[in-house]
Amino acid sequence: MNDMAPLIESVELTTQHILRQFMADTEYDVEMPPPTREKIAGALNVYIGGLARMRQASLDQDPRALSMSVDEAERNVNSVRSAQTEHHSTLAQGVTVFPFLNRLLTHYALARAGGDRTRLMSLLQEAPSFVHWLRFEMAGRQVSPMAAQQVYHLQQLLDAVRTTVQSGGPLPDIQPDLTQLAPQLAVMLEEPLRPGAEKGPTPISAVNRVFQALETCTGEDDEVDFLLTVLSQCRTSLRSVVPPGGMLEAMRRLNFVLNSLDKMEHCLRERTAFEELVAAAGQLEASSKTLAAAVTTAAPKATHQPIPSNPNTKGLPVIFASVLDAGYAFLDGLCDASTVRAAAQHLDTAASKMQKESAAIPQGDSRLDAIQEGLELMREASETLRGLAASGNANMLEFARTQCRQAIERLEVAGVIKGIF
């Protein structure tokens, strides 16, 4: 137990540094409302306090106190993640379905009004990675080359914006161009995947995505940045495969996978020898297969029980009631996290279908604003449900229910719920 104390203290110090950096970075961040900033900071402070109690329990060689503090730390980690997930869902709000473009428009408007351009330039540095992501997604879908040209148009627009911002010249209004392009891109991303697009060398789709991105990476800066993003997304996805407090053997196997991802990231950032990256990728493949086998062995057999209706969803339209019912069933132990994630995806798909159908409404129709607001709320609710699946935090479900009710109100105003366009 004494050997654990220095390790725990190291985590404490690192987390304290993260908290200080977070507070400094977000003090004047327009993307971070003060209540959200306080919530994330509060969750981190609680986590730090729990680490201090864990360290003291190890110094006191008190197994019972140590066990209790470990359980507390797991709960605190989930609280931090829930606060982060709520913040990420707010980033999806805006005039497009793409958080990156919404953030870009926010900072662009501030710069046009005479504000500082530093954050805008920093965000524009991520534009090549965003464009590369779009091309990567299009490549796996049944999209015609003519339609995929819209990605090229977006790239040209973003390149022109970056040149103008760097020159210090006056900034034109780009919102009409982006709001015209974004729905077309969103529709293409809803096209079905090509046969075999999801296949890969492992049973874990998030890991297969890493290998797919690695195959297309030629070493260009934007492609390396995109691959680093995929690695980060893979880590996040693996949390749902093996959540904190899961089976010990699966957790041990997960650490091997995470270690392989760390090695790959190091190789990419340091531009080490290609052989080192290949070796790390080989370790990732082997460790992922072992993890998948461990999770399969530890997982309870599926019973395929129907999801019961919950009193809290009574009276809601079926599309909303069904996804929220899955959330309540998950908290009651009647289904697993994958069911909640599937419900979230169902809600996302419904929003995208409605977005496509709304394209038939003439521009200038008074219902368009209400429809857009309703669809944004649907997507926010789906992200919140994914946060619920990852954290098991009941507050996330109530947050999602509120978002669904708000979405219903806006869509009823527009007549969408009744199928009237």
Key terms for this structure?
globular, 4 domains, 421 residues, single chain, mainly alpha
User: Could you give the distance between the termini?
Assistant: 66 Å
Q: What is the count of helical runs?
A: 16
How many strand segments?
Answer: 0
Domains counted in the coordinates: how many?
A: 4
Share of helix, binned? over 70%
Q: Using the CA coordinates, give the radius of gyration.
A: 23 Å
Portion in strands: under 5%
Q: Quick one: overall form?
A: globular
Order of helices and strands: HHHHHHHHHHHHHHHH
Poorly predicted parts: none
Largest sheet: none
Question: What structural category characterises the helix and strand content?
Answer: mainly alpha
Quick take:
With 421 residues, the chain is mainly α.
Could you characterize the architecture of this molecule?
- This protein has 421 residues and is mostly helical.
- 74% of the residues lie in helices and 0% in strands.
- The chain is built from 16 helices and no strands.
- Helix 1 (4-25) packs antiparallel against helix 2 and helix 4 packs antiparallel against helix 5.
- The longest helix has 29 residues, at 63-91.
- The chain is globular.
- The mean pLDDT is 85.
